[in-house]
Fold this sequence. Notes:
By secondary structure, the protein is α+β, with helices and mostly antiparallel strands. The chain is 18% helix and 28% strand.
Amino acid sequence: MVAGGVSGPGSDHPDASVITSFPGLGSLSGAHAWFPFGGGPRACFGARFALVEMVLVLATLAQRFHLDIDPGVVTPVAGLQLQPAEALRATLRKRAARTVQ
């Protein structure tokens, strides 16, 4: 039995985050339709571990790869954080192996 329909990655509407048809809830859409790790008394107890693990994975990737951002003008947009107004084109290169002496 399917409790509701979800639009998002892998669906017909990959750019939308809409949850529909949950009994008693009606339709949920917008910025609060998807909240990683949940919130309130039923929040994921592994959320802090997952965030720490994410930092370690990114640090490991940064040691092994280099991100070259294509030259051009980047126009920042202020929000909760600064972000580019348009998508950035970048190339991922594997770093040369370092030898330990």
